């Protein structure tokens, strides 16, 4: 896969629905741990936590922080370790609808529940979520999920109903030509119509390879 060798990956790229569950469980566990850290240090979000004065005794490298974060033994320890800084985490789920379709019934509800929870409260802990899909369906875009993701981008859709489901307004059904899209930052904001540039697979590969050498 294109992004497998990217140094910034905390977890490897996951394509198996069973492994997706484990990755999301890790993300929820990390999010809960961060909220416990905020409560112990008396801050409300990751911005306030990272703005605290840095002490020399607690300074460590990003690699050490990530390694400690991924250690199962550290998560089980009753004594909560307070890192000096916390990195931001971005979870990208490509084709969310297909993921739910391929997932077994017993884990489908768990995936939806964890995604909704991360979308709802993850941003204050520095855990952000990016979802993409090929169509707009009520079965995938629940009311809770939509309310938790105010910023949305929609390319051309087949009907006004899908446009309302995605953007809470019509317009996406009238987009013509590839690359045209509508962007909204919140339900109360004014939508922006723009045109996205085409980026080929070769260009993506070159950009990822360049980033990997930095």
In brief, what are we looking at here?
The protein is mostly helical. It contains nine helices and five strands, in the order H-H-H-H-E-H-H-E-H-E-H-E-E-H.
Overall pLDDT: 84
Number of helices: 9
User: In the CATH hierarchy, what is the architecture of the largest domain at level 2?
Assistant: 3-Layer(aba) Sandwich
If strands are numbered along the chain, what order do they take across the biggest sheet? 3-4-5
Span between termini: 19 Å
Beta strand %:
5-15%
> Care to count the β-strands?
5
For the sheet with most strands, the description reads: 3 strands, antiparallel
CATH top level label of the largest domain: Alpha Beta
Whole-number count of domains: 2
Task: Estimate the global geometry from the Cα principal axes.
Answer: globular
CATH superfamily label of the largest domain: P-loop containing nucleotide triphosphate hydrolases
- Provide the CATH topology of the largest domain: Rossmann fold
> What sequence of helices (H) and strands (E) makes up the elements?
HHHHEHHEHEHEEH
The secondary-structure class comes to mainly alpha
Low-confidence stretches: none
The helix fraction, in percent, is 40-55%
What does this structure look like?
- The chain is mostly helical.
- It folds into two domains: 1-146, P-loop containing nucleotide triphosphate hydrolases (Rossmann fold, 3-Layer(aba) Sandwich); 150-214, no CATH class.
- It contains nine helices and five strands.
- The protein has helices at 17-41, 46-50, 62-69, 72-76, 96-102, 105-121, 143-148, 160-167, 201-212, and strands at 89-93, 127-131, 152-154, 180-184, 192-195.
- The strands form two sheets. It has a three-stranded antiparallel β-sheet, with helices on one face.
- Strand 4 and strand 5 form a beta hairpin.
- Helix 1 packs parallel to helix 6 (105-121).
- The longest helix has 25 residues, at 17-41.
- The relative contact order is 0.12.
């Amino acid at each position: 896969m294109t992004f497998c060798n990217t140094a910034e990956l905390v977890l490897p790229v996951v394509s198996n629905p069973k492994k997706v569950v484990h990755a999301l469980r890790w993300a929820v566990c990390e999010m809960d741990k961060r909220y416990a850290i905020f409560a112990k240090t008396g801050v409300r979000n990751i911005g306030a936590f990272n703005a605290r004065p840095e002490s020399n005794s607690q300074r460590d490298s990003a690699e050490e922080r990530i390694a400690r974060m991924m250690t199962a033994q550290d998560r089980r320890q009753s004594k909560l370790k307070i890192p000096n800084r916390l990195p931001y985490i971005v979870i990208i789920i490509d084709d969310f609808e297909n993921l739910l379709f391929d997932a077994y019934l017993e884990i489908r509800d768990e995936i939806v529940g964890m995604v909704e929870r991360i979308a709802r409260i993850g941003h204050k802990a520095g855990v952000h979520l990016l979802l993409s899909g090929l169509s707009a369906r009520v079965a995938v875009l629940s009311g809770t999920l939509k309310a938790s993701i105010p910023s949305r981008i929609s390319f051309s859709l087949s009907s006004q109903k899908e446009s309302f489901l995605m953007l809470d307004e019509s317009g996406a059904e009238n987009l013509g030509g590839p690359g045209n899209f509508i962007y909204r930052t919140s339900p109360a904001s004014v939508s922006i119509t723009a045109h996205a540039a085409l980026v080929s697979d070769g260009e993506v590969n070159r950009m990822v390879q360049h980033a990997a050498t930095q």
